[in-house]
Amino acid sequence: MDKLDKSIVDVMCKNVKFDRRLVGVLGAEEEAHALVRVRNPLHLGMLERNFDVTSIYPFIRSVGIRCTLRDAIRLERMQEVEYVSAQGRVFTLDEPSPRDVSSNEEQFKMRNASLFGLSDDLDGSGVTMCVMDTGVSPHSDLSIPRERIVHFVDMINEEKEPYDDNGHGTFVAGVACGNGMLSGGKIIGVAPRANIVGIKVIGSSGESGAFKIIDGMQWLFDNFRQYGIKVVCMSFGAEPLSYADPLKLGADMLARSGLIVIAASGNSGENSLKSPAISSEVIAVGAVNRDDSVASFTSRGEYMGVMRPDVFADGVDVKGLSAGGTYSTMSGTSVSAPYVAGACCLLCQKYKNISPIQAKNAIINSTSYVDGNRVFRLSGRMTS
């Protein structure tokens, strides 16, 4: 770039309307994918007419565009534009090297009959949970004796039938909703009769772009009532923006529309919270070991003056479903989030009209303080 262009880049770096990461990309490349958020949804049409729009996200008043430096200069001068950000990278939040396990290993159940102080008849029946992830494979524990993957949407490869070319999403679904069919009930999820809607927003590598995640969020926002979805689990994360973070905005809108949103806090240790778990509207979940000590990898810290995550749950060497049809173990806040999501399915079964804030309060009020951290386990009485 010539000196004039560099001076323009310097000016944009000082403009609070622009994500510094986008400015950095435009300083090195001719074009970048950008998310443009407007102050009024009526302005979305104006952007469509004047820019190379690739995606439209009415639920967060935003569009995705192919942005050149010339486009950035025009956007900087438009009062209708609230914020312009780069497309961030999003990752699954599992720790590496899951191992296969036999269904005959020692019994491990994610549920506990004393939840809510009631009998074991709470099983998620009549509740549908959405898993936004790498997909969901029709494992025996999800598809026998009846098919509980009731709908599948693929934002990556546009396939029609459910699949998981990574395995992460299937494991997540199993922690929340596996019924233990293959293991004879030895490895069973929290809500073993809940239905699942899978939205594949992450590819086989376990990595995705923010636009694909928002594509999935927009579909969910538009369709959750049609499919009766009550709970959504997001076991992924991205580095948060200081302002107008798109994943946070999307999670906020889903929660405000009535969905109970559970998000993994991240696997990067202290002071490294990931988005969308930074949202105060979601239930942000970190991981603990079996002795209730916080797992060292768990992302935790302060965001906007509030310490997060909201709760901690089992997330180390947890047994669950393998997309290959057997079982494996996994660690990470990716595992902890569906543990809580499954509990929220049980809440929805008992309290048909429970709101997201009521569900969040019920989970938080059912935790035990361990070394100053709220640890959630499926025992004792849950209040709502």
What do you see in this structure?
With 384 residues, this protein is of the alpha/beta class. The chain has two domains: 3-87, Alpha-Beta Plaits (2-Layer Sandwich); 91-375, Rossmann fold, CATH 3.40.50.200. It contains ten helices and 23 strands. The strands form seven sheets. A seven-stranded parallel β-sheet has the order 9-11-8-13-15-16-19, with helices on both faces. It has a four-stranded antiparallel β-sheet with strand order 2-3-1-4, sandwiched between helices. A three-stranded antiparallel β-sheet has the order 12-5-14. α1 (3-13) runs antiparallel to α2 (20-28). The radius of gyration is 21 Å and the shape is globular. The model is unreliable at 103-119 and 380-384 (pLDDT under 50).
Q: Label the structural class.
A: alpha/beta
Described by the principal axes of the CA atoms, the overall outline is globular
Radius of gyration: 21 Å
Overall pLDDT level: 89
The percentage of residues in β strands lies in: 25-35%
User: How many E-type strands?
Assistant: 23
- CATH architecture term of the largest domain: 3-Layer(aba) Sandwich
Helix content: 25-40%
> Largest sheet, if any?
7 strands, parallel
- CATH topology tier name of the largest domain: Rossmann fold
Low-confidence region ranges: 103-119, 380-384
CATH class of the largest domain: Alpha Beta
Placed side by side, the strands forming the largest sheet appear as 9-11-8-13-15-16-19
Task: From the structure above, extract its key features.
single chain, 384 residues, alpha/beta, Alpha-Beta Plaits, Rossmann fold, 2 domains, 7-stranded parallel sheet, 4-stranded antiparallel sheet, 10 helices, 26% strand, globular, disordered C terminus
